[in-house]
Amino acid sequence: MTSNAALQEYKCAEYKQEYERSEIQDMKNKRVVVLGVVLVLLLVGLTIILFPYVQRLQDPQTQAVVEAWVQRAGIWGCLAVLGVQVLQVVIAFIPGEPIELIAGALYGTWGGLALCLCGTMLASAVIFLVSKKLGKSILDTLFGAEKVKDWKWLYDSQRMELVTFLLFLIPGTPKDMLTYVVGVTDMTVGKFLLLSSFARIPSVITSTMMGDSLRDGNWQTTIVVFLVTALLGVVGITCKDRVLNFCRGGKRSDKAGEKP
Fold this sequence. Notes:
cell membrane, mainly alpha, membrane, TMEM64, globular, disordered C terminus, transmembrane, single chain, VTT_dom
């Protein structure tokens, strides 16, 4: 009788765990749907707000004014965009997409990409070296101990290079905060800049391409890039948890990467 009761209790506990797992999965699915809807609404809202300004860019006279400003600004215009991009990464709370759009509108797809990546690399190098010097204390000061705790597993990951690349590739991860976090691991600054910069290219180039096509009044390209970006964003948000679970798997047995 006792063994039957124990078996029944075990089955009840198993069913309860299965139910809880199902509930958690349902909550995650709902969250993905909500995030997808919010993303679409934000993109639609941004389009409505910017539409009057975008319409002006179809006017050849307006395009000539923009081109004239770029020529007059010369190197100072490039440095201004570079400086704003550096500031965006350092502060870590400013969204980078508007800056990338402007860079694309002013300097074209490839010029904007080059400026944004240079600014990002410069800021990331400074942040990385500061984090390396000051250690975990700077993370707690800037972001709070609880938020930093969510990324503690990164300190002793045995797939550090792959994990870093994936975290900077998929949408929805706090990339600028992660620059501070990876800085307290044993990864070198050169390797980090190489991995994170390559991983950022798809996100940055879609923004600069959109800015470039908006400036030229090329609606076809703008709409295609917009839809592709939105689709990739939804896919990235949907897959983010799976990618993070993969990244969390596997730790160094020697704890070599763990920091105080």
